[in-house]
Amino acid sequence: xxxxxxxxxxxxxxxxxxxxxxxxxxxxxxxxxxxxxxxxxxxxxxxxxxxxxxxxxxxxxxxxxxxxxxxxxxxxxxxxxxxxxxxxxxxxxxxxxxxxxxxxxxxxxxxxxxxxxxxxxxxxxxxxxxxxxxxxxxxxxxxxxxxxxxxxxxxxxxxxxxxxxxxxxxxxxxxxxxxxxxxxxxxxxxxxxxxxxxxxxxxxxxxxxxxxxxxxxxxxxxxxxxxxxxxxxxxxxxxxxxxxxxxxxxxxxxxxx
Length: 257
Fold this sequence. Notes:
The chain has 257 residues and is mainly α. The protein has one domain (3-244): ABC transporter involved in vitamin B12 uptake, BtuC (Orthogonal Bundle). It is 78% helix and 0% strand. The longest helix is centred in the N-terminal third of the chain and has 31 residues, at 3-33.
């Protein structure tokens, strides 16, 4: 591996660690609420904001597109906050419908774009190897604020606060690593550690870190797409952790006489 490879891999690894730091604690809450596909829906809505800004004429990587993505994601967050309050029993189904609508809207917006398939692939798979240092700095500052609020305020954030923080994080993450990695990082580590009583968060973080480190390293060694490979390494480390770690001791059962 030459020096050019290393110069590309370090920003990618930093991006993965930043995404892991925020998505693991949010993911535990997503699993607890039973709204697994919320990140796909909000990420897709944010992506529609970027696509629409590009369609209007703004630079897809500029500040205007970022604002458009954030506004779209916040609108989606407010919508899902309202639907959870109004129809909590079907919230997961509503999230699925919102995701499909946002995904198809993106396809329609890109239909007349000669680079439409490339934009759609970048939204889904991401370009983690081409992350720029300035992106990492902005993302790190926002994520630090989100984590401070998350661990400082906790349950006092309420439903609306959770959705708004979630929208801000996903808006940045989907443009940093792509929708597939956002979903995998949010769900796989918390899912693999759901049976852990103590130190669950630390263990879930370790699954995420190992998944990114090994995925990026293997991608460079094997010359295969980085994002999809990281999804698989996250899964493999998640399965290994679940299989090898002790289970939480269940409540004492009454013994039949």
